[in-house]
Input
Amino acid sequence: MKIALMAVSISLCLLCGQNCLANTPADDLPENHYIYDKNFPAHKMAKPSVGHLYLSGGMVTADALDLFRSLERQYAVNSIDEISRHYEGVRQDLHARFHPADAQQLFENYRTYLACQIALVNDSRFETKSMEPKELLAQLSQIQNFRREKLGRETADALFGKEVKDHEYLLRRLIIIGSPDRYGKEKEKHLQKLKEDMWGGENVSIGEDQEPYNLYEQKLQLFARDLSETDEINRRQKIEEFRKEYFTPEQIDRLRKADAEVAAEEEHLKRYRAEENKILQTTGMSQDQRDHAIKALQDQYFGTEADAFRRREAMLKGTEK
Output
């Protein structure tokens, strides 16, 4: 395994557009103990406008992380036994590109950085054992604290601060959205407070998906408890209100038609199940007679889709076993 490619990362379902939500109340989070450091100088986490891209005030900048990762890939070796060759390649590269003093400073930081990365990769405490956002948040905290211990707080936050902040914000959003104990309005207030706490007046694009359908789906997740605790008529009215926030009249009409089709399919399947159950409960039938009767029933109810229905049924039964 190439050590230069062993980067430690956190896997996020939302980043992939998936709904991986924790069943954890938002109040369980350490609201006043964020992983990212509010007091850390902002310029050290942002690209410097002037001067050296990778060094600032005797410290590495956030951009140095991209440099270090590219050096990892470029001078990859196959085992820890070849680490000396790896470091020599990196040292020569840096001295060919930068002033000797800057090259040496970057090289020393790189050696410390890579040693930390290798230690992280080989420590079972930092393996991802759960995809629950609350567990991932705890893991992210452990990883950054480990980096701070090995690299020094300023260096760890300069290199990884922006990355950590982005991941932390997304994970905390997921935990709030997925909380089953809170109502929609409460969740919205928590989301707004989180945004203000972590970003202040900054424009935030991360996690702020403006695609109407995704906003609508998020709204349903936020108000899941509200919708589950009301009757069917009020639930439908509330969903109509949500749709009017995000969709045009034409889009709403298409959604209604889709709802009707789904409802019709569910009713059709319900009727089939009732007839199927009658056959299963009929006494005096051999297994072959029962199978033949069910197959005929499926042909009657699903027509040209009967074979596809039977395949799905077989897959479900296989899963149940």
Summary: The CA atoms of residues 210 and 293 lie 51 Å apart.
